[in-house]
Amino acid sequence: MSRVELLSPEGLRIDGRRPAELRKITSTTAVLSQADGSAYLEHGNTKVLAAVYGPREARHRALVLHDRAIINVEFNVAPFSTGERRRRTKNDKRLLEMASFVKQTFEPVVVTTLYARSQIDIYLQIIQHDGGTLQACINAATMALIDAGIAMTDYVCACTAGWVEREAAIDLNHIEESSDTSEVTVAMLPKSGKITLMQMESRLHVDKLEEVLSLAGEGCKQMHVVMDKTIRDRAEDLAAKMAV
Amino acid sequence: MLRTETVHFRKTNKNTVVKRVHEVYLRKDIPCLSTLCPWSPPCHARVKVESSLLSEETPYYLIPDYSVALRYVELLEQEELTNIIFTETILQRLQSEDKSRTYKSLRQVAKDPRRRSVVFSNEHCEGATVLREPEESIEQRDWRALLKTADWYHQHLQGRVPIIMLSEQFGQKNLREEQLKAGVRVMSLKEYLNEFWKDNAVLHELLGSLKEAILEEDLEMQNKGGIATKKGSGSTGFQEYKPLSELEAGVKSERFFQGVMKVRANHRDQAFIRGDGNIGEIVIVGSEHRNRAVHGDMVVVELLNKSSWVAPSTHISYDPEEIHAAGDEEDESSNTHRFKEIKPTGRVVGVISRNWQPYVATLQEGSEKDSGSFHLVLPLNPVIPKIRIRHHDAKVLANQRIVVRIDSWPIHSQYPNGHYVRSIGPAHELDTEISAILIEHGISVSQTTQGFSEGSLKEMPINTPEHPWRPDPAELKARRDLRNLTIFSIDPPNCQDIDDAISIRDIGNGQVEFGVHIADVSHFVHENSLTDLEARARGTTVYLSDRRFDMLPKVLSEQLCSLRHHVDRYAMSVMWTMDAEANVLTTWFGRSVIRSACEMEYEQAQGLLNGKDVVPGLDAALCKKLKPSVVLLAKTMRKIRAKRMMNGGLELESSEVKFKFKEEDGGISDILPKQPLEVHQIIEEAMVMANGYVAKKIYDGFRESAMLRHHPLPIDSHFKMLRKAAESRGFSIETSSNLALAASLRDCAAKSQDDIEFVRLLKTMATMAMSEASYISSGSKPVNEYTHYGLALDFYTHFTSPIRRYADLVVHRQLMSCISGTSPQPSLNAATVVDGSVHLSSTTTASSSDLLKNGLKMEQVASHLNYKNRESKLAQKDSTELFQTLYILQKTRNSSSGPKDGSKDAGKEGADDDESEIPFVETGIVSEIRENGFFVFVPRFGIKGPVYLKEKSGEITIPLSVLEIPGVATGAKTSLKPSPWTTVSGCEMETDQMTEITVKIPLQSAASALPEHRLGSLRSKVQFRLFDKVKVALRLKKSLAHRHSIYMTLMGLDEESTQRPASASPVGLNPRIFSSKGKSLVQMKKDQVKKIAENDPALAPLSEQQLIQGITAGQEKAQQLQKEADLQKAAEAEETAGSKGFGKKKRGRNASLEPIDPYQQTPLDVSFYRLLDTFDRLRIVESSQTIE
User: Fold this and answer.
1) Over 80: is that where the pLDDT of B1076 sits?
2) How high is the mean pLDDT of chain B?
3) What are the RNB domain coordinates in residue numbering (chain B) (predicted)?
4) Which of A153, B159, B173, B792 is the most buried (most CB within 10 A)?
5) Residue A108 domain-assigned?
6) Minimal Cα distance from A10: which residue of B?
7) Would the pLDDT of A229 be above 90?
């Protein structure tokens, strides 16, 4: 395909959003009856399903910690998730890396000291991939953890941001990601503004870093609003049912 | 926002089908960008967008569809069509079909604020897009989308403006009922032109040629299948371009090199691209390797094997036609000369983007007799190849200059295909040639007709005798009142647009208060007003040798902004207080009101400086008032200049000339080189100082976006020529820094006091080695790169000429913003009443401070101004050459016979009427040695032209007159003297291509050819070294399709050059008497003296009568020169020496005479002076010759 204009002179991106706008987000919790907590999240066309089991007895006794719980993250990418069908093995390096990112993101946030000698499993399944999978996974995992009732100090909201042609933009989709843009994923605790994960693989000029980060921060706050609404709605729903 | 999805299916390389789903967000906030928007606030105020707005007084808005946008772009580019809405639908379609050139042109139209055209993102607008229905073709779907957009606009604007859709594919019948009623119309281009532009012949013609060109293409497409197998690329040798992905990959991996391809006018058959850093320049030899790329295109080049690398030829081309035909015939000579270094050689494998412009061309001769509609035209610019156009009636085009555009270059065709746009006029007529120059350099028609739109004229303040303009009392309070100071301006005579004035006075304590006051244009021209936009588009005032095209309307440039004397004027002032050593103590910037006491002329000021108490043209009281200021000014500026020189400021040369025109028929009476006076330097220094201080000030205020001017360091390899040239005379030039260079040049000048030409030429070569100075935005470079090499200043900008340069206006606004801390003038957003005239509502959405603070936009403006500046200089150079050739034509034409202009002569080159041509002989210096001859520079006229020693056929010939040793009798009687054009052929030549060229004559052939000469009276070999003086006859090579070009024939050597310059000249006249400060007037005298001193063989053909005529005319001439000398050098010691020289001259004249005299030379004070303005006061670094 010939050179695509990622940001038109009118200020519209390739899908019609403005640089500081997120894609359409839909989310539901408690979609899997069997799991302790689950969530389904859509960022535009990126669809992720998260399931949380735990805290439960650790599978491998060797890994057990005496004073806290261990968090185990597993990633699965469906072969039909990208444009061309491709099957990935479970031990794909990339997936393992993403899994470890998610694990590092949640370790400081989940109050693991409450659950000594246990294991919390987070299973993430990517159903459709259209850019921003890591952010979607983190957000889905947060909601699933809340749904499972696991104690956390705060929500973890994640958002990608990058430099598209001449401006900073958030929530990059697949076309924007795969062209020459530098992209950073930021996971933040919205109440305190602390960042638990910042991940970038490309190169970004240091002068632009500040703008991109602040925009990502804004995006995280917007995410928080959406996620919070979903959780509260569900909670009200449950409360209404219980209050017979 | 509504979210939908689009689904495409693509075929992959593995022949599978892939389904791609993309989201599309439909918005409600896409602005309609029309000033008629009925909502309040209007939609463009709610969203941040940069665009011009559709106007309100127009009878319709245009929406072109894809069929029109694809093929009739040129019609849409015409300035008459305004208020066009470009939909995202067609822009996206153009991008996906790879028509990036068309896409860019449409974007350009939308960007131009005068066109009032917009881009509407209908694909993302909720009410203006449609989904593709099953079984629907793309064209149908796009058409429906456009209809929906038209509907949307109609509803949104509540029917205020009718919408017209232009389509070549769909018609009125494709509309639905309700649309027909709603005032949406569909028209084809022909219908549209017939209804709204019935009288505009240009548009109709353009439509016609475009239609023909399209027929052409379609025909070709059909025939391609059949022809491709037979002709293919075999006959022309062109290869297919590689696909874009391969090119991009190749460039990234550094296998290929990308760059803009340039062809140089003097080197045929060769093109150059500048690769990146390490590779330097890449040569492309031959038309096969050039592979259909045209000068200016962005191409991708692959290097050839090292064994095929070639040294670029230093051959001087014989005529412009041969450059067009690069590769018409095979020529091996370019590969065989390896005297210069071998450069990497390559071939073009792909073209990234074309840079095809409208070109001025002429029908090839003989073509009009051909039947059939295809004709070849030769562009005026010899680097562009011949173009094949289709025109039904070639007779109409014969001998006319026409404008053509290139459409395509198919692989099997030797020449590109194009179409005819319009005619300019008959070839070789002055007005036609000047229009051709303007078109070639992109100087718009509106500027040439001096047309300022009605809108911008309405914005102008009124200044007529009935309603003279007066300063506003409120404004006066806000300004510093400097009307009590003695302020004066110094300009060329008859200058109307006075931008700058100076004041200087002693304020006691040895301190001096010095002020530079510049016309306050920013007060009258508000940012983003129509006048401002027009001035920005023009960029600069264009000066041609006989006329001038202003950037601003006359009411401003000649009256209200111009600092005329005896009236109050607004100004922007910079005032310094300095101590006795010219150290600056304080600086003040601000708005003021002044009253100039006098519009002095340079000569008058110089007269006061030289000690006179009264100068012609000014009354005694005024002179008395001004003289102390002028003297103080000179003293102060000398000190400042000395300081700058100590830091490395350069003093360079530019060979500019002034033309003096005859009153009667506009013919040229004389060409005079510029005569620099000290007062020029003084004013220059004052302006440089002001510019420097203002630059620092605006940089402090606008770190990221100050408009500065910088001069990058010259590239060391450019100095090679200069160094070698200096070495050939025993001097060495240090080029490590500007200080070193300046010191070396001064050293050379001091040591060669008697050989001023040499010094001047050396300085000209140094000027040519310089890089080009350009405008930059301070945000685009780190601060240590702002330095101006030639002026040796760390910060520099243009501040002192806002009337003729747009950059200065921007600097004024930035300066005002820095001083006052607020934006200078509110930009227009609604109808306001200023100065009694009503301003139209805003034309764009941009706010005033946007441009000044935005570094990115400032960069764009800076590069636009650089481009405009360059084009204007090229246009000026072309016009100077045009007039030089006109002058020579006048001089060499036999006065008894011959037509008025050369066009009726026997067509092209060759066939000079040897007998009827009067030799027009001048002295010149050898300035560049090439492999088939050398260039001679004639300082009197500032003309540089080639002398060919090697003919096109390869024969080496030399004129007989050069071989004759003067003073030795040739043994021939006067009556049998051969004509001055006789040459001896069969010689041999040797050269090192840099500093010398030697021709040896085989004596036998000389003897046989010229029996009446004794062998002993001829030289056996002649050597020409760089900087040798020679006598040449200036001749014109006439050509129909190109402008006449100047070339020279050797007439003889200058005797002095055969000896070392230090020794005395033959007739005992010591040229050192005229040790001067490089005044070319003195130069002129010296030349004539030298000529008189010798027995010119060139004089022989002149008859007795002419001799007598000459003597009397010569006496007149001497008196003239005497008068001039009086004027200029009254007080100097040289005068006594000069009159001595004159005495000797008078004696010498009886024996011989100056060859100039047969031509009537009108005395100086009678001829009508049209001027070249002093915009080039800073000619130091802005020589027009840097382009080469």
Assistant:
1) no
2) 74
3) 479-821
4) B792
5) yes
6) B49
7) yes
